[in-house]
Amino acid sequence: MPPWIEIILRTLSAIIFLFIVTKILGKRQLSELSLFEYITGITIGNLAASLSIDLDGRWYQGVASLAVWTLVAMGIEYITLKSKRLRNVLDGKSTILIKNGDILEENLGKERITVDELMEQLRYKNIFSLSDVDTAILEQNGTLNVLLKKENQPLTPKMLGMTVEKELFPEVVISDGYIMEDTLTSIGLSKSWLQSELKKRRLQEKDIFLAQVTSSGSLYIDLYQDKIHPVHVDAGEKNLLYTLLNKCEADLALMQLSTKDPKEKEIYKQSAKQLQREIKNLKPYLK
């Protein structure tokens, strides 16, 4: 057999084997990797590459080595699921870098992170002032998660004592011109409903690149011809929303004045300030 044909066959076999190994080891190999998973991925990739081009070696020896690495990786993953102690050794532990607004210099030293690197990671989170941070935790995979101080957290309906309806998960119902009937059934809709919606817009399935039922139950459509149909919000609705937000701010200020409890006064005061900031940010879009 000519060498170039053997290389092609070995390479195709290695690709198939790597695909099988990746499926066996699971999706964690494709996402954030632990140290051992990182080493395993590099080693298996190198073994597969050597198996493809090393014509002097016997192919079954390379396959045996790949199989051993795969079995060891599977065994260690199983053990780490059962043993917290071994999981801490292999994957490591999360490290608190900022606690109650104070930087823990000792933990920074343990993780070999400089203040400049810490500030860089905070800027990635759109945080430019340390005074805004309550807690920062360095996870096992190197990601920095940050908890802002209460007064710097985004305003939520719960803070205003408002109840909101449960939001549905948006689902794609047409992809590449084909209706996804299983998805329609799972969200309680039918193919006839979808076709009637398309008929209203004088469209056919084949015209549509992607259609999605949004969380509000409306239908978003993107055509193959890239005819974009943006959702237009009526100016009157914008003004109404702006007025309602200002009314909420005024109500919070009124509640602050009417209550005698100092704690409640402070809560209303902080809520009014947060809402005022949000209104300021939204004003260019609502006026």
Automatic annotation (TrEMBL):
The chain crosses the membrane at residues 7-26, 33-53, 59-79. It is a multi-pass membrane protein. Residues 82-213 form the YetF C-terminal domain. Keywords: Cell membrane, Membrane, Transmembrane, Transmembrane helix. It is found in: Cell membrane. The keyword Transmembrane helix applies. InterPro entries: DUF1657, DUF421, UPF0702_alpha/beta_dom_sf. The keyword Signal does not apply. One of its GO terms (cellular component) is plasma membrane. Belongs to the UPF0702 family. PANTHER family: UPF0702 TRANSMEMBRANE PROTEIN YCAP, UPF0702 TRANSMEMBRANE PROTEIN YDFS. This is Uncharacterized membrane protein YcaP (DUF421 family). It comes from Baia soyae.
